[in-house]
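Appendix B, example 12.
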Amino acid sequence: MPEITITGKDGSFSAYLATPAAGSGPGIVVIQEIFGVNRVMRDICDDLAGQGYLALYPDLFWRQEPGIQLTDQTEAEWARAFELYQGFDESKGTEYLTAALDHLRGRDERTGKVGTVGHCLGGKLVYLMATRSDADCNVSYYGVGIEANLDEAKNITKPLLMHIAEADQSVPTEAQQAIKDKLAGNSLVTIHSYPGLDHAFCRVGGQNYDRAGADLSNRRTADFLKAHLA
């Protein structure tokens, strides 16, 4: 049953659910980029299910345009993606994600703990889930705009793994340094930087995809999830 419905505080929205071959496992809420519920993100869920996790991918743009699926291959799609991003309420988004987290914890197939993994917009929302929710661990890939919420860093009480692209055109060097400086004293936070790599270096088929960087960061994520969710 790949498509399910989640009921939140102010409405219901769809989500993609990938189940491991064993039929059960620890849970992961996968958080989207600005391109909606596209194939790239569903493939990430399927890969996590292949690693033994129950992976849930909620549609966060449901109030603007339910089920939208974009790529990074055309200017028109980029324009629509940024339009959706600019109209997105991050606080509401964390509410939707918390509802997804609660839903996942309530499923019979879920065993073990529940964490989050997110890319781009999702990488920022992962950080907010680390500061605003009780997710058991969180993994952020090149989150955009985290520096605007560093005052919440004191609320991090569960392990957080962050992947930062040093040549990220969406996250200036000054913002990257502010994040590193603010989180340096928190033993729960692990930050990896990737020299020479641009934003979305893990997006398979994307404009900035880098296989070596993607493989390295994904191995680090796999080790982190195994350590904190099993």
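The first helix runs from residue 39 to 50. The two ends are 24 Å apart (CA to CA).
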